[in-house]
Amino acid sequence: ETGVTQTPRHLVMGMTNKKSLKCEQHLGHNAMYWYKQSAKKPLELMFVYSLEERVENNSVPSRFSPECPNSSHLFLHLHTLQPEDSALYLCASSQGQGPLMNTEAFFGQGTRLTVV
Amino acid sequence: AQSVTQPDIHITVSEGASLELRCNYSYGATPYLFWYVQSPGQGLQLLLKYFSGDTLVQGIKGFEAEFKRSQSSFNLRKPSVHWSDAAEYFCAVGARSSGAGSYQLTFGKGTKLSVIP
């Protein structure tokens, strides 16, 4: 496989469930991102990891917990979500984390999450 | 902080007609600018980017965009639209979130393009 792969593509979960979203990149990049895409709203950056260290947490509720075990994998652990958390969650990767590096981001196809 | 405005939520054009999607940004320095396209149920694919140099940039699928610093704009154009171009288009600016913050993309709300056969 090449590019950025996200699993699962679709997920329905209850508010008391615990689930995880997985992202894997095969591009040799060293920065990874989680974005949330809700209807009629701009893409919202949630987390940034650079060299496996979290460098950004955009005021995301603690019911979302990211994990980056290595430069190729990124997880988003979910627990006690709310219906308003239903959205498309997009993972992206890039080479480098700064204006002197190649800042083009490559995106996965996303996980469509529905919280019931 | 940087921001991106795409004033057109939805545009409909006939196949073969020309297209221009508008994008205005707000950023204190020279921005890095991007256009992405998203087909239904898919992730985002990069169409083109501007970092520096020639202000008219060519992208994939016959798209181009022109950076106009005086207007803080980065409009996307295509001379002849194909039915397969129907999708949602996002303009983005790349910049640091704050003085020492991480480098990130800030996206506009997107413009949905419909193509009439």
Structural features, described:
The complex is a heterodimer of chains A (116) and B (117). Chain A has 116 residues and is mainly beta. Helix content of chain A is 0%, strand content 55%. Chain A contains no helices and 11 strands. In chain A, the strands form 2 sheets. In chain A, strands 2, 4, 5, 6, 9, 10 and 11 form a 7-stranded mixed β-sheet that branches. In chain B, 0% of the residues lie in helices and 54% in strands. In chain B, strands 2, 5, 6, 10, 11 and 12 form a 6-stranded mixed β-sheet that branches. A 4-stranded antiparallel β-sheet of chain B has the order 3-9-8-7, with no helix packed on it. The relative contact order of chain B is 0.32. The mean pLDDT of chain B is 90. Classes of the chains: A mainly beta (116), B mainly beta (117). The A-B interface holds A 4, 6, 33, 40-43, 45, 48, 50, 55-56, 90, 92, 97-99, 103-110, 112 and B 4, 32, 34, 36, 41-46, 49, 90, 94-97, 101-110.
